[in-house]
């Protein structure tokens, strides 16, 4: 009879790496993360330079200025002072965006045709920043490592080796791994709070994500593969909207939908 050992194995892992079990500040959820946040931040900075070497930094003044404004506002809302924040538009036809550990944000130029205004850009940036604040990358890498390497192999290795294996297992610093439904849900709710606190009308989350439901044009398929859309997401956002609108009303600066983007 096949015996499923994964659950006891992983709870044992949680005991062994007790320092790796922690509670996420914004949600109160317990997480298993084997890497330290400072290690993730260092890896994030390294991966960010690699992305900036691979894709040209945009020279589009309007898009750069819009991302700078959104970035400043989201950064203030995130209140994460140990991050060295950077916000960059990279030239790529892909409709995608990411935030690496440490606050290294990139929005591909291919996403801008889908952001009608600054507030919709804030939806994307808020969502990606939320993934980083929640350390979803480190968490996914830790689970991937436990599944692929096993405990006995881990015990004989140094922390930095363990971390290297973790990120190797997750590939590409985890940026392009599909997020789990739970991660997406968490990032949606945290992102909604961040954009509202930043002074952008949270209603833009509905207009933005509705573009990614139903029949998606091929250009956004990549974004959908890492950030699944759908009716469930819209329904969850609608449920969270009254709290987000209250947060927006408390924001010191109201930006509404911000500038219109072309
Ligand atoms: Zn996401």
Describe the structure.
Mean pLDDT is 80; it is low at 1-19 and 170-176. The protein contains eleven helices and five strands; from the N terminus they run H-E-E-H-H-E-E-E-H-H-H-H-H-H-H-H. The termini are far apart. The strands form two sheets. A three-stranded mixed sheet has the order 3-5-4. Strands 1-2 form a two-stranded antiparallel ribbon. With 262 residues, the protein is mainly alpha-helical. The structure holds zinc ion. Zinc ion is lined by residues 127, 131, 179, 184, 187, 227. Zinc ion (ZN) binds next to helix 4 and helix 8.
Reconstruct the topology from this structure:
Layout: H1 6-16, E1 21-23, E2 30-32, H2 37-54, H3 61-78, E3 86-90, E4 97-100, E5 104-108, H4 118-133, H5 136-149, H6 151-155, H7 159-170, H8 181-197, H9 204-210, H10 221-226, H11 231-250
Parallel strand pairs: 3-5
Antiparallel strand pairs: 1-2, 4-5
This protein binds zinc ion.
């Amino acid at each position: 009879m096949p015996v499923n050992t994964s659950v006891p194995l992983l709870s044992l892992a949680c005991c062994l790496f007790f320092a790796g079990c922690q509670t996420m500040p914004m949600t109160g959820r317990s997480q298993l993360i084997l890497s330290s946040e400072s290690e993730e931040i260092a890896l994030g900075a390294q991966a960010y330079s690699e992305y900036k070497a691979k894709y040209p930094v945009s020279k589009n003044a309007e898009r750069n200025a819009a991302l700078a404004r959104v970035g400043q506002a989201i950064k203030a809302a995130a209140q994460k002072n140990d991050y060295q924040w950077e916000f960059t538009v990279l030239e790529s036809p892909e409709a995608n965006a990411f935030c690496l550990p440490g606050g290294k944000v990139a929005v591909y130029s291919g996403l801008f045709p889908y952001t009608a205004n600054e507030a919709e850009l804030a939806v994307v940036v808020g969502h990606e920043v939320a993934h980083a604040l929640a350390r979803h990358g480190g968490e996914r890498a830790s689970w991937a490592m436990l599944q692929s390497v096993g405990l006995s192999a881990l015990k004989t290795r140094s922390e930095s080796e363990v971390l290297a294996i973790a990120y190797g297992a997750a590939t590409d610093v985890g940026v392009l791994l599909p997020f789990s439904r739970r991660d997406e849900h968490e990032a949606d709710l945290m992102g909604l709070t961040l954009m509202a606190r930043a002074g952008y009308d949270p209603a833009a989350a509905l207009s933005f994500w509705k573009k990614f439901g139903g029949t998606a044009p091929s250009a956004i398929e990549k974004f959908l593969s890492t950030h699944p859309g759908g009716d469930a997401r819209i329904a969850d956002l609608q449920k969270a909207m009254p709290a987000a609108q209250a947060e927006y009303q408390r924001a010191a600066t109201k930006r509404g939908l911000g500038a219109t983007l072309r």
